[in-house]
Write a structure and sequence with these properties.
Layout: E1 5-10, E2 18-22, E3 28-33, H1 41-48, E4 71-73, E5 96-98, H2 104-110, H3 117-132, E6 146-150, H4 154-160, H5 165-168, E7 172-177, E8 180-184, H6 190-196, H7 200-206, E9 211-213, H8 225-231, E10 236-239, E11 261-263, E12 266-268, E13 270-272, E14 279-285, E15 290-295, H9 303-316
Parallel strand pairs: 3-4, 4-5, 8-9, 9-10, 10-13
Antiparallel strand pairs: 1-2, 1-14, 2-3, 6-7, 7-8, 11-12, 14-15
Helix pairs in contact: 3-9
């Protein structure tokens, strides 16, 4: 079953990242699962992209191996990219979970040093999820789009900057549909970009990018003009940051770095989730026609729901056993 379009939502989770893709074939992909204090992207997706068919209408999402989420990819294992992990339930934990198994070991060390109970609990839940997914996937997912993923080697990023290993080990992901490409580079920083762009695979990944989710939330530490050269001047840069973040690189909004795209009827070069505290939705149809708009994703967690979220992840270990 196909809905013939790709929908991509970059959620407003303040300083963090959570990107949802509903594929042309109806499968759901989640890239990172950060949340904000009173908003859960996972809960919002569960409400708006369910796997049931009502009144003979085509569903927005199709269950994959019994799960609402065909795959979760963590670009890297920093807290602001997985803080909503406790909102998964035993009914909708991802069928597949991709993460950096090398740097996740750091969490096992860091968790003992955290005095904040909420943060410590979330870190422990991610580790439980990590320990659950142990079997390799045997078949590829027929998303209805092309997806590629690259990652720098651990030893080479450590040699360049040992303190930035986790960020520079970020998975860089490209999604291409109807000749339109969305690029998600996690939190890779300048040293990582320079290493990556020495390699053919990474240069190919960046080529012909249309929508570029700015690395490291759009901070200066993630920008180099070399990415403009290799991505061939994207149509639009998208920044994920909180409203009062003053460390955003203004280069993303310059016309000489970007072709521009209509957003809610106005030509823009950069948009940010900090604008009006709204999420950003990209829709690409089968002919490549694309719309970009701001959407409201209101707070959806009560105090009791926050408590339930804190309990849910532990249940996943009894249900799923795939990588």
């Amino acid at each position: 079953m196909s809905n013939d379009s790709l929908e991509c939502i970059i959620f407003n989770v303040e300083h963090g990242l959570s990107i949802f893709v509903n594929s042309p074939n109806g499968y759901n992909l989640l890239i990172d699962c950060g949340g904000r204090a009173t908003f859960s992207p996972i809960k919002w997706i569960r409400k708006n992209y369910n796997t049931t068919i009502e009144n003979n209408a085509s569903p927005k999402a199709i269950a994959y191996e019994g799960s609402l989420f065909a795959q979760l990819i963590l670009t890297h294992v920093h807290f602001d990219h997985y803080s909503d992990v406790g909102s998964f339930t035993d009914k909708d934990g991802p069928a597949r979970f991709t993460r950096d198994k090398k740097t996740i070991e750091q969490i096992k060390t860091d968790v003992n040093d955290k005095s904040n109970k909420s943060i410590k609990d979330t870190m422990e839940k991610l580790l439980k999820l990590h320990d659950t997914y142990t079997k390799p996937a045997t078949e590829s997912i027929d998303w209805g789009f092309a997806m590629s993923c690259c990652q720098l080697e651990y030893d080479e990023v450590k040699a360049v900057n040992e303190e930035k290993v986790v960020n520079n080990r970020s998975f860089i992901i490209s999604i291409t549909y109807a000749d339109k490409k969305i690029l998600v580079p996690g939190d890779i920083e300048v040293e990582g970009w320079r290493l990556a762009l020495e390699k053919d695979a990474f240069r190919k990944l960046l080529a012909n990018t249309n929508f570029f989710i700015a690395s490291h939330h759009g901070h200066k530490s993630g920008f180099t003009s070399e990415i403009i050269d290799h991505s061939e001047k994207p149509e639009l840069f998208i920044v994920s940051a909180k409203k009062d973040d003053d460390d955003i690189d203004t280069s993303y909004s310059k016309e000489n770095y970007c072709r521009g795209h209509k957003v809610d009827g106005k030509t823009r070069y950069m948009v940010s989730t900090r604008e009006e505290k709204k999420s950003i939705k990209i829709t690409i149809d089968s002919y490549g026609k694309t719309t970009v708009e701001f959407i409201d994703c209101d707070d959806n967690l009560s105090e009791n729901q926050l408590k339930r979220r804190d309990k849910n992840t532990g249940k996943l270990a009894k249900t799923y056993n795939l990588t």
